[in-house]
Write a structure and sequence with these properties.
This protein is mainly α. The strands form two sheets. A two-stranded antiparallel sheet has the order 1-2. Helices cover 55% and strands 10% of the residues.
Amino acid sequence: SAWRVTKTAGLVLRMTSYPPPPDFYKLYGQDAEPPQPPPPVKGSYTAFGAEHVTDFVEPPFEQSLMYRRDGPGVDLREELISLNKELLERFIALTHDVIATPSSYERRVEEITLLLNNMHHLLNAIRPSQAYATLEHVLSEQLRQKKERLAALRDAKDTAGVVLGKIPAELRGAVGEATKRAEQATKGTAPMVK
């Protein structure tokens, strides 16, 4: 049977291999209307200790000209690489601080958070050019495939032209041979071929 009896400290407990489901399963019966999902959050909310706003607003980075999208001569890729290196250095410093003085980790966590926010902002700034590069790659691949297929189609056309070019000569030869046999057969010099 599915029931098991266990004795623990003089108590007899009955346990099943497959316990019954929690009570809220009754909300999803065939006759019952399932509960509606909660409405989307509007305004601001707190997640993992950080305040978030649902309205999209590009984060301001006026303090640093380095992160301006339209700045002249700014290589976002190089900036991301340098931020990534700095993030690793700060993470190593954080692990050192946690080992040496566990109570002083908060400053390092704030620095890492700021670096991650900056990286996130730079990645969002790169997205349009990334989409453009992806589209360019897809279109160039489609063009290459179409050129290959067109070349294969032209090769097949040329092969078919050569084969079809031989047919009239062979057909003329066969017709000429048949007329000779027919003339010889009518003169009686050669028998008709069956």
